[in-house]
Amino acid sequence: MVRENSTGVGDPVVYKAGKTTPAQRRQATLRAVIVDAAEAGATLQEIADYVDMSVGRLETNFGKDIVAAWARRTIRLRRAQTEMALKGSKRILDRLTGGTPPANDSADSSP
Fold first, then answer.
1. pTM score over 0.70
2. What tens digit of pLDDT does each residue of 61-88 get?
3. Residue 53: which of 66, 44, 64 has the closest Cα?
4. Does residue 9 lie in a domain region?
5. Is 19 left (phi over 0), alpha (psi -120 to 50) or beta?
6. Of the candidates 75, 72, 84, which has an alpha carbon nearest to the alpha carbon of residue 39?
7. pLDDT at position 76, please?
């Protein structure tokens, strides 16, 4: 690897085994930002706009990471819903089991 110094002349840079290059660190930081946005539920277009990258490039370079982050988010939400249902939330329990939606409490069905 060659790194340019302030005079524009490249001087060789040797990285020891196991050390990361600045480009690798930037890539890891960008990946963390993208995964964080995906876990928050952002769409591909929203993530692309946020990191100033085309959707195509985003899908090519980070597609697997984004899909995995979306899956983790879905699982995390389902766990939270299940926990709420086990604590007695009838609305969440009905949603999880496909039961009938809860009746409107403000409506009076008596004549």
1. no
2. 999 999 999 999 999 998 988 888 888 8
3. 44
4. no
5. beta
6. 72
7. 94
Where do the H-state alpha helices sit in the chain?
Answer: 22-39, 44-51, 55-86, 90-97
The number of distinct structural domains making up the chain is 1
Buried b (16+ CB within 10 A) or exposed e, 92-109: bbeeeeeeeeeeeeeeee
Cβ pair 70, 34 in contact under 8 A:
no
Query: Is residue 69 a part of any domain in this protein?
Result: yes
d(C-alpha 64, C-alpha 62), whole Å: 6
| Span 17-60, pLDDT tens digits | 667 788 888 888 999 999 999 999 999 999 999 999 999 999 99
Domain of residue 65, residue span: 20-97
Task: Answer whether residue 3 is part of any domain.
Answer: no
